[in-house]
Design goal:
- The longest helix is centred in the C-terminal third of the chain and has 24 residues.
- By secondary structure, the chain is mostly helical.
- The chain has a three-stranded antiparallel β-sheet.
- Pfam families: PCI, Rpn3_C, TPR_PSMD3_N.
Length: 496
């Protein structure tokens, strides 16, 4: 989540090590995983005591970057360090961490001169321990233990109402839903998620509201409950987009709902905006957004540009949709059927198979438009043959298809029922119509919306208009900006 990052000398031993190296000292040995966890705990403690949410967010990002190095002995040693031995949380979490035989505890070879210590009893430290154990259990595919840990953490969160816990709570909500999705038990937690969303609303936990709303929408869409998802979305508090990642997810789910409800124009705007706002490292999410956006554009009668399918890292995943687009573009019904059958498993996995069934009418209409442009007069039997209609009475079907296309304005022609002909009218100049003006207006609206969103996303330091910036504050601000730039790529990749 894109929050500002703050770091000072007391919380960033890494910065101190780099400074000592700059003056000629020998490089310090690499820190152990346990030592990194202790430093993260000290950052959480500082954020809790100073009530700065930025430090809690930074601690979460550092944990995500460290998760691949986590071992059972490191987690167990950190629990012994961070939690009182007599506490219920220590007993509960220690029982969930598997014991490793034949291995010694990780040794802090690079401990700083001042030994790190934290205050016991801080709710933020306890919730962080729940989050750490839950991440470790999910990564090691111990889903039953992870569900137990997640349920215990949710029960503990219900008794807390602290702004410094909100960031940790939002991550716990996400992993709580994720572990139940992995075990195919999402329906069991729907009531719990609704209760948590109501609690977050009453506590004015804005980040929790956004996270839980997206989890509920994902829960409903997982079981194809689109009507219930739309009712929840319309009744929920207004989405203020405090987190870019959560806003991207919301736009994606909104686009899916609008697609099922046949509101293709709104769906296209939401899906394209979600793909544009998503970080470049979130490749899987952007692929899903592009898949749905391609289908929606085809349903609108548009043909996506070839560059959409050639984006870096997406070419293989979008190949089935590229062939589908080609079939729709040429209006070949037989080619459309073969592509749909060839990639049926892919479309089923992407949950777009039902939408592709809707495309059959667009393929027929595109083929009919090409025929009307190529022929000034053509018989209905030849139209049925060219469109490859395989019904019992193809001529009658061709006649009804042509009549509907003329009524909808898809083609400019007349139908001669007596002779069984379709007579096309002379193609006029498109620049004599309002089409160029409409297209130009839509592009202007898109650019203006992008500009307004960029202005809203601007951030300014608090009270910058009240006091002048001193030299010391300027140095601190520059240090914060450098740290923010360093962690921005990691931050974008964390939630996807």
């Amino acid at each position: 989540m894109p929050e500002d990052v703050e770091m000072n000398d007391s919380q960033a031993p890494a910065a101190a090590a780099s400074a000592s190296a700059a003056v000629g000292d020998a490089p310090a040995p690499a820190q152990s995983t346990l030592q990194h966890l202790k430093e993260i705990a000290s950052v959480i403690e500082a954020g809790s005591l100073s009530k700065e949410v930025r430090r809690i967010s930074r601690a979460v990002r550092l944990t995500i970057a460290l998760r691949r190095r986590l071992a059972a002995r490191d987690v167990a040693a950190f629990l012994a360090f961070a939690l009182p031995p007599s506490s219920d949380a220590f007993a509960r979490l220690s029982a969930l961490v598997p014991k490793e035989d034949g291995g010694e505890m990780d040794v802090d070879t690079a401990a700083p001169t001042a030994q790190l210590s934290i205050k016991h009893g801080l709710p933020e430290i306890e919730i962080y321990c729940y989050l750490l154990v839950l991440i470790f259990l999910i990564d090691n595919k111990k889903y039953d233990e992870a569900k137990t840990c997640a349920s215990a953490s949710i029960a503990r969160l219900k008794s807390l109402n602290r702004r410094t816990v909100d960031v940790l709570a939002s991550r716990l909500y996400s992993y709580y839903s994720y572990v139940h999705e992995l075990t195919n038990t999402l329906a069991e937690i729907r009531g719990t998620l609704l209760a948590l969303h109501r609690m977050a609303t009453l506590h004015h936990d804005e980040l929790g509201q956004e996270t839980l709303l997206n989890l509920l929408l994902r829960n409903y869409l997982h079981y194809n409950l689109y009507d219930q998802a739309e009712k929840l979305r319309s009744k929920a508090p207004r989405f203020e987009a405090h987190s870019n990642q959560q806003f991207c997810r919301y736009l994606f789910y909104l686009g899916k709902i609008r697609t099922i409800q046949l509101e293709y124009t709104d769906a296209k705007e939401s899906l394209l905006q979600a793909a544009r706002k998503a970080p470049s490292t979130a490749r899987g999410f952007r692929i899903q957004c592009n898949k749905w956006a391609i289908i929606v554009r085809l349903l609108l009668g548009e043909i996506p540009e070839r560059t959409v399918f050639m984006q870096k890292g997406m070419k293989a995943a979008l190949t089935p949709y590229f062939e589908l687009t080609n079939a729709v573009r040429v209006g070949d019904l037989e080619l459309f059927r073969s592509v749909a059958d060839k990639f049926s498993s892919t479309f089923s996995a992407d949950r777009t198979r039902n939408l592709i069934v809707r495309l059959r009418h667009n393929v027929i209409r595109t083929g009919l438009r090409n025929i009307s442009i190529s022929y000034s007069r053509i018989s209905l039997a030849d139209i049925a043959k060219k469109l490859r209609l395989d019904s019992e009475n193809p001529v009658a079907d061709a006649e009804s298809i042509v009549a509907k296309a003329i009524r909808d304005g898809a083609i400019d022609a007349t139908l001669d029922h007596a002779n069984g002909w379709m007579v096309s009218k002379e193609t006029g100049d498109v620049y004599s119509t309002n089409e160029p003006q409409i297209a130009f207006n839509s592009r202007i609206a898109f650019c203006l919306n992008m500009h307004n969103e960029a202005v809203k996303a601007l951030r300014f330091p608090p009270n910058s208009h009240k006091e002048k910036e001193s030299a010391e504050k300027r140095r601190e601000r520059l240090q914060h900006e450098e740290e923010l730039a360093k962690h921005m790529a990691e931050e974008d990749d964390d939630d996807f």
